[in-house]
Amino acid sequence: MPTMRPMAPRFATPSSSFGPFEIPTNLVCAWQDGRRDWLVTLPGIVRQVAEAWSLSVGSPFQPGGSTAWVAPVQRPDGGDLVVKVAMRHPEADHEADGLRLWKGEGAVRIVATQEFEGATALLLERCVPGTMLKQLPEPAQDEVIAGLLKRLWCDPPAGHPFRPLQTMCDNWADQFETKVGPNRPPLDQGMIRDGIELFRALPASAERNVLLATDLHAGNVLSAEREPWLAIDPKPYVGDPTYDALQHMLSCEDRLHADPRALAARMAHLLDLDHDRLLLWLFARCVQESVDCPTLAIVARQVAPT
Ligand SMILES: Nc1ncnc2c1ncn2[C@@H]1O[C@H](COP(=O)(O)OP(=O)(O)O)[C@@H](O)[C@H]1O
Ligand SMILES: [Mg+2]
């Protein structure tokens, strides 16, 4: 029987002034993978924050993100902002705290937040024109990403709310161990053990610990007027800056597979990081990801410590 692809759902909202509620393409997967309950709360949340913050709300950005509903909004004073209603998930817990601390230096400014059960609403500076850094050739992306990361890495103040990178790595290593039974990646047992041990051990041997973005890649950097490029969508943790180079490297798939050592050398140079330590992180992360993305096992084998 052919598989039917569900159409993007539209909801009739409780407020008629909202008309049909549009779900961006990338969020439609949420409908298919069990996040329906969260999706159906969206129109009500958008209506509440529109009222609380006096916003007129436009159509959501397309294709949008996979964990958030984001749309341009306008305030009565004419201010152009965006509203982001993000699904609660552990890595995103401190997005608002990070943006507040960075005060617009390399990342979008945050204007307000409101917590809901299962979701956080953020009122953010709008990036105009908002073109994704992905549109640029990858070598140019490397330089922008490196420039932003170096500005975002700062010492968090005493009493800060951010969790250590160790917590995220331990959680991901635990998840790997739960999944690895039925889904064994194409790596030998010794390499799997070394990679996961390293993924748990590296956070503790960092020379310095700074505020990290942890999810900075060229899809989370938008062109703007106030600065040429601004970071959006951070998942802040405190830990080893070397870790922060990985997300961009993993998104440069062709170069990563063709010559992962050369890509690591370039990013280590641009970010003033230790090349060998970045290779260890790349190996550990590729092993950890290989359970969901088996092609990363090939990269893990290329950069495995000898
Ligand atoms: N501050 C902003 N200004 C303009 N567009 C934005 C802004 N924040 C998000 N967007 C748009 O919404 C999309 C999804 O936002 P993002 O925060 O990356 O969500 P997700 O957490 O689901 O990845 C972006 O790809 C972009 O098109
Ligand atoms: Mg994103």
Describe this protein's structure:
By secondary structure, the protein is α+β, with helices and mostly antiparallel strands. The chain has two domains: 10-125, Phosphorylase Kinase, domain 1 (2-Layer Sandwich); 133-303, Aminoglycoside phosphotransferase (APH), C-terminal lobe (Aminoglycoside 3'-phosphotransferase, Chain: A, domain 2), CATH 3.90.1200.10. 39% of the residues lie in helices and 16% in strands. The protein has eleven helices and eleven strands. The protein has helices at 28-32, 36-52, 95-102, 138-152, 165-179, 189-201, 246-251, 253-258, 260-271, 275-289, 296-303; strands at residues 10-12, 20-22, 56-57, 68-74, 80-87, 110-116, 119-125, 210-212, 221-223, 229-231, 237-239. The strands form four sheets. Strands 3-4-5-7-6 form a five-stranded antiparallel beta sheet, with helices on both faces. A hairpin with a 5-residue loop joins strand 9 (221-223) and strand 10. Helix 4 (138-152) packs across helix 9 (260-271), helix 9 crosses helix 10 and helix 10 (275-289) runs antiparallel to helix 11. It starts with 9 loop residues before the first strand and ends with a helix.
User: How many helices in DSSP terms?
Assistant: 11
Q: How many angstroms separate the termini?
A: 49 Å
CATH C-level of the largest domain: Alpha Beta
The major beta sheet can be summarized as: 5 strands, antiparallel
Mean pLDDT: 92
Proportion of residues in extended strands:
15-25%
With strands numbered from the N-terminus, the spatial order across the biggest sheet is 3-4-5-7-6
Q: Give the total of beta strands.
A: 11
From the alpha carbons, calculate the radius of gyration and give it in angstroms: 20 Å
